Amino acid sequence: MKEVLMQVDNLKKYFPITGGVFQRTVGNVKAVDDVSFRIHRGESLGLVGESGCGKSTIGRTILRLNEKTDGTVLFQGKDLYKLPKEELRRMRPKMQIVFQDPFSSLNPRIKVGQAIGEALYDHGVTDSKVVRERVLETMNICGLASYQYDRYPHEFSGGQRQRIGIARALIMNPEFIVADEPVSALDVSIQAQIINLLSDLQRDKQLTYLFISHDLSVVEHLCDRVGVMYLGSMVEMSSTEELFRNPLHPYTKALMSAIPVPDPTYKRDRVVLQGDIPSPANPPSGCKFHTRCPIASDICKQQAPEYRDVGNDHLVACHFV
Amino acid sequence: MVKDLVEFRNLETHFHTTAGTVKAVDNVSFTIREGETLCVVGESGCGKSVTAMSLMQLIESPPGKIVGGEILFEGRDLLKLSKRDMSKIRGNEISMIFQEPMSSLNPVLTIGHQISEPLMLHMLLDRKAAKKRAIELITLVGISRPDKIFDSYPHELSGGMRQRIMIAIALSCDPKLLIADEPTTALDVTIQAQILDLMRDIKQKLNTSIMLITHDLGVVAEMADYVVVMYAGKVIEEAPVLELFQDPQHPYTKGLLKAKPIINQKQERLYSIPGQVPNPIDLEDNCHFHDRCEFCMDICKVKQPPFRTHGKDNHKSACWLYEEEREVL
Amino acid sequence: MSADVMPITENKNTKKAKAVDTPWKTAFRRFTRNKLAVIGFIMIVFMFILCFLGPVFSPHNLFDYSLKNKNLAPNSMYWLGTDKLGRDILLRMMLAGRISLLVGFVATFIAVMIGATLGALAGFYGKIIDTIIMRVADIFMALPLLPILIILGAVLSDLKVDPSSRIYYLMVIIGVLNWTTLARLVRGQILTLREQEFMQATEALGLKDGRKIFKHLLPNTIPVIIVTATLSVAGAILTESALSFLGVGVVPPTPSWGNMISAANNLIDFRKRPWLWIPPGMCILITSVAINLIGDGLRDALDPKTKK
């Protein structure tokens, strides 16, 4: 059995909606609603889902970049939400994040070399020569040239900025990296470079990834296991191979068939979902997917399906499986 | 015989910046035929949107300027039309939808108002007839409860619904050409599938030509009849869709097709095109792809390859690899 | 490492365009391209040279009382004439300028220090700290500035503060009463910056609060601070002039543009001897117009949204 690196149980994250004169809470956006999963050391877990399904919120909440509403998050057996502030800060280097937007994730007024290396100063490395050496080494690993050390972020293209973001996360020798849609903002030819970089790094440094994406094909390529989310809940999770060979949840099936395949001769029986994604502030009762589900029946409207193992480590939440 | 609707002939659109001239569209020629969906593919900054904006003559000037070429629309050169005639064509015969539907809709007017206004203006319908037509259009783009939507405001609708409304507005005057600039990029995949279905449906029903601009080869494969691939301001390959996907010629097109992970076809390692898109300022007269190309030859670095037919079905490309037997350096 | 992770080879074009400047150089270039702003800058430099170097070359003395030369119209000896005690107006105007400019800049410096620090603290820590600081700011903003200043000026007079040290009190008072605008702006900026992904990255990297505030947040608010500070220099000079005009700011014999203009209080002086009040009046006008031009130029130059 592999070691569990990150254990998330019944995680909930609600964003309050305030209204009225006194800014009272009038409702909650249930961005993450009772989600549990484990990430083993050395694996990469993919999280897929459409906008508003809470996948990015999970990425940030398990790193305690925003506060949870309920549930527990254990990293290497330690409850992140019970750590005092300074101890948490010392833990930070072990778990890093790479952001989607290569533009807003870099401070426009800080030079690249400094942006990558500054964290070292706050974690005990004081010799600026050592810092510079380590920055250059990391830049090299990430495909950046050393003469780019003193450049400002605006001089770089999207793909290079993403490399800078990866270098910044990498310099602390992390064990766990949350990659929050790291290639979604990039062009196809650059996407492939970054995906390859991420998978090389994983192999060379034994990294553990939580890879968040809306693109099933990227997730299939990069991840060992995949979780599918809809409106704040996990609807299906299994090993990548199993999920793509035998998707069980109707939402997963629809998601897979909706992806345009770059082959004009490819014919498929497409499940086109009707209607829009409901608002997470006011999710449907019962199974949250029943408003768009092609096989929904009465029980789906009344009762939320249990999220259960149907064998082969394949978890799914649907009444008809 | 299918007639040509739009023909770009050696179009040149340049942007003048302090750092130098950007040839955003550099000697671009291709044809959109009636009732056909033509896809323009390329990465950001390759000039695909600027080509469409040149057709609409919505290039912001300065810094942009159409400096050469012709755009023939049903035989008339749009670049020679007066501003008035052009604005009649815009909206009436050519209409456009954009990537971000929210910024194209006025947030303080109802959907109904925004659909019926051009009807009253261009088609000279009265208020009642305009409303009737507007509701027809809303139904056409696949929205149930059109009456309710008629009276709602843009912020009350989801991204997919707004894009449908944009399509309804674009179709309001029965255009001959619909330009769609990355219409589904901001949408989720399941919604994207709906919108693509809708566009296919409309093309069949109304026989509208579509110029679809996208970076997603999957969308191209699903939608296109004919494909134009652009790189750094130039058309580098064009072909009917089947031909292009089965037998891509230009190394860039080949690379793009290989670089995208395809669902249910897991590879060990993705093919990737090394390097990045060249800086568009003051490009030299060579093949702009040469420094990323694994087949780069000496001639690629100094001379632009001619754009001409190689192989069957009017399959054109601009690459020295296919020129060897015709020209010796 | 495989081929696609190797350092990117750049073509000649990218290299050439890599001569892009730092954000500051870009701002400087944009500023110098703005004609009005450059004119404003030249005017301010001229005022400084006039006020700080001019008196050195003056043949007169500030305390040259000579009643026989009183109220002279401009002539070759007294270029701008003399006042009712026979002192040279030009010399007094230049020395008054030193005081006025000094009050303007020092008062603004004080306001910036207080405002930026409190604004940054309020924006960064939020919650109770934010509430306290911003409610205090509200109180300050609710005070009618001029009456308060007049009262404080009167208090200074009542305490028999020495006229020469009075200007220092004045700088502190004007500065302390002016921190609120800047505090609000800086706080607002920091609130938006805090939501940016690069700030989440600093949190994820486990940076210390000091580094987050001083290396990441404040440098991004500097454009706002510079623009606001520039414009408030003009405000401070005007406030000082108004107070001195009313007799509660800088008091004679120390000259200031404001108390020189108060000559216009006297109907005869106002009508018959315009050389008494027009030169200091012009100085105030030129200075505040110039500073406002610079401020506008800086705003355009530092705003990343305006592209030129």
Structure overview:
The complex is a heterotrimer of chains A (321), B (329) and C (308). Chain A is α/β, with parallel strands linked by helices and 321 residues long. Helix content of chain A is 30%, strand content 25%. In chain A, helix 3 crosses helix 4 (128-141), helix 3 (112-122) packs parallel to helix 5 and helix 4 (128-141) crosses helix 5 (158-170). Chain B contains 12 helices and 12 strands. Chain B has an 8-stranded mixed sheet, with helices on both faces. A 4-stranded antiparallel sheet of chain B has the order 2-1-4-5. Chain B has 2 domains: 4-93 and 174-322, P-loop containing nucleotide triphosphate hydrolases (Rossmann fold, 3-Layer(aba) Sandwich), CATH 3.40.50.300; 105-172. Chain B is an alpha/beta fold. In chain B, a hairpin with a 6-residue loop joins strand 11 (308-309) and strand 12. The longest helix of chain B has 18 residues, at 189-206. Chain C is mainly alpha-helical. In chain C, helix 4 packs antiparallel against helix 5 (127-142), helix 4 packs parallel to helix 7 (163-177) and helix 4 (89-125) runs parallel beside helix 8. Chains in contact: A-B, A-C, B-C. The interface between A and B is large, with 41 and 45 residues.
Order of helices and strands of chain A: EEEHEEHEHHHEHEHEEHHHEE
- Low-confidence segments of chain A, given as residue ranges, are none
Uncertain residue segments of chain B:
none
Overall morphology of chain B: globular
Rg calc of chain B: 21 Å
Work out the helicity level of chain B.
25-40%
| End-to-end distance of chain A | 27 Å
Q: Please give the count of helices of chain B.
A: 12
Largest sheet of chain B: 8 strands, mixed
CATH domain class of the largest domain in chain B: Alpha Beta
Largest sheet of chain A: 8 strands, mixed
Side by side, the strands of the main sheet of chain B go 6-7-8-3-9-10-12-11
Helix % of chain A is 25-40%
Mean pLDDT of chain B: 85
User: What CATH architecture of the largest domain in chain B do you see?
Assistant: 3-Layer(aba) Sandwich
Class derived from helix and strand content of chain B: alpha/beta
* Overall pLDDT of chain A: 88
GO molecular function, one term (chain A): ATP binding
Protein name (chain A): Peptide/nickel transport system ATP-binding protein
Organism (chain A): Paenibacillus macquariensis
Domain ABC transporter (chain A): 6-256
